[in-house]
Amino acid sequence: MAKHTILALNGPNLNLLGTREPEIYGSTTLDEIAQAMQNAASAKGWHIDFRQSNHEGELVDWIQQARDSADAIILNAGAYSHTSVAILDALHAAEKPVIEVHLSNLFKRETFRHHSYISPVAVGLICGFGAKGYLLALDALEDCLN
Ligand code: DQA
Questions:
Q1: What pLDDT is attached to residue 18?
Q2: Looking at the predicted structure, is the pLDDT value of residue 146 above 80?
Q3: Ligand 1: which residues within 6 Å by Cβ?
Q4: H or E, element range at 66
Q5: Which of 81, 111, 114, 118 to mutate to test the pocket of ligand 1 (most atoms within 8 A of CB)?
Q6: What does pLDDT average to over the chain?
Q7: For residue 140, what are the contacts with CB-CB under 8 A and spacing of at least 6?
Q8: Residues 49, 34: Cα–Cα separation, whole Å
Q9: SS3 labels along 8-65
Q10: Could you point out which of 44, 69, 89, 115 has its C-alpha 20 to 30 Å from the C-alpha of 109?
C-alpha cells in the first residue's frame, strides 16, 4: 500500500496543454505530466490521484473528497486561481497541505494573474518552471508529510 496519496488537481483549459499557447505553457501534454508525476511518486512510495476539470464545482467536490482520501494536494487551478473563493473555502475545509503550481511565471504576465486566492492557504507557490513545477511540488511535499 502507498505511504501517501497526493491529489494532483488541474483546472480549466489545462486539458489542452501541449497545443495551448505552447510559447507560454510549453509542449508537454497533461498526460505526460501525469505520467512523470506517477513515476516520481512511485519512487517515493506515494500514489498520485491525478485529475483535471473545466468546472469549478467539480474541483470543489474533489477537494472536499480529499479530506478523507488524500494526504496532500498539488493544485494548478488555472484561471480559477484568480477568481475562486469557492476553491479557497474548500481548501480551508480540507485541512491538507497544498502546493500551488503554475506552469507560467504569473508575475511576468497580466496584473490580473498576480493575485491568487489559492496562495494564502498554500504551503508555497511554484511558478515559471513549466511542467517541471509539478515534480518540484512533489519534492517540496516531502517536508510536509511524515
Ligand atoms: C496557469 C496560469 C493561469 O493564469 C492561467 O489562467 C492558466 C494556467 C499556469 O499554469 O501558468 O490557465 O495556471
A1: 95
A2: no
A3: 13, 76, 78-79, 81, 102-104, 106, 113
A4: helix 56-69
A5: 81
A6: 97
A7: 99, 123, 124, 126
A8: 9
A9: EEECCCHHHCCCCCHHHHCCCCHHHHHHHHHHHHHHHCEEEEEEECCCHHHHHHHHHH
A10: 89
84 phi and psi angles, rounded to 5 deg: -100, 105
Whole-number pLDDT of residue 28: 97
Q: How many whole angstroms from 78 Cα to the centroid of ligand 1? A: 4
Answer whether residue 12 shows pLDDT above 90.
yes
- The C-alpha cell 510549453 sits at 26
pLDDT grade for 1, boundaries at 50, 70 and 90: confident
**Catalytic annotation, pick one of 4, 25, 117, 134:** 25
Over the stretch 30-75, which tens digit does the pLDDT of each residue have? 999 999 999 999 999 999 999 999 999 999 999 999 999 999 999 9
Contact, 90 vs 11, CB < 8 A?
no
How far, in Å, is the centroid of ligand 1 from the Cα of 2? 30
Ligand 1: atom nearest CA of 13 is 12
- Domain 5-145 matching CATH 3.40.30.10: the answer reads no
